[in-house]
Amino acid sequence: MHPLARRLVWALDWISEWQGRIVCLMVAPIIVAMVYEVIARKFFLAPTLWAFDISRMLYGTSFMLGAAYALMRGLHIRADFIYRGFSVKMQGRVDLLLYVTLFMPGMIFLLWAGYGFAEKSFLQNERAGDSTWAPVVWPVKIALAAGVLFLVLQGVSEILKSWYAATRGRWPR
Predict the structure, then answer these.
(1) Which of 16, 84, 122, 131 stands the most exposed, by the fewest C-beta atoms within 10 Å?
(2) Tens of pLDDT along 44-78?
(3) Taking the domains of the chain in order of start, what are their residue ranges?
(4) 85, 33 in Cβ contact below 8 A?
(5) How far apart, in whole angstroms, are the C-alpha atoms of residue 55 and residue 61?
(6) To the nearest whole number, what is the mean pLDDT of the chain?
(7) Alpha helices in the chain (DSSP H)
(8) 2: which DSSP letter?
(9) What single string gives the DSSP state of each residue in 74-96?
(10) Residue 103, Cβ neighbours under 10 Å: how many?
(11) For residue 35, is pLDDT > 90?
(12) What is the largest CA-CA distance in the chain?
């Protein structure tokens, strides 16, 4: 792999790795909010207005911000019952074709749409209409758009790795 491409892959994978590690920390506040809600509701007959909204927003945020990490680790769903029988060169070709023709156009469209949703939500200071607490939702929408941006960046890394496998017959280290 060209040294510049190797450095780019390393940098993009490093970003996804640390992003995934940080996003894992979001699980703790979700657990705390849900445990607090259960205890308040069941033992003190005092349900909260905020616990469900907080857990829903944090889960959505962690799901999207963790997607690039999952892509880097190969944790997304793949129909590999056929794929695993291919040679490494063929796997690289299939991955390259799918990343370039399906993944990147779809993610770029989602990034464009997500940016528009996040910008509109921020400018209007949008609040959740399905909750009595009515929290602002623009931070979550910004996080969703950021998650797609990180997916696009990790997609670039995966394209470079697929190109290497397709041309060299082995996956880069």
Answers:
(1) 84
(2) 999 999 999 999 999 999 999 999 999 999 998 87
(3) 3-168
(4) no
(5) 10
(6) 95
(7) 3-24, 27-44, 51-65, 67-73, 80-83, 88-98, 104-124, 138-168
(8) -
(9) T-S---HHHHTTS-HHHHHHHHH
(10) 18
(11) yes
(12) 64
- Among residues 61, 47, 62, 63, which one has the least CA distance to residue 131? 47
Contact 167, 1 (CB under 8 A): no
Q: Are 54 and 136 in contact (CB under 8 A)?
A: no
Cα–Cα nearest to 12, from 146, 132, 160, 148? 160
Cα distances from 124 to residues 128, 137, 138, in angstroms, run: 12, 10, 9
Nearest to 95 by CA among 116, 115, 74, 112: 74
Q: Is the pLDDT of residue 81 over 90?
A: no
Q: Which two tokens stand for residue 146?
A: 């950021």
Tokens for 102? 């399906």
In the numeric block, the tokens 């029988």 are attached to 85
Distance CA 123, CA 56 (A): 22
The better pLDDT of the pair 73, 82 is held by: 73
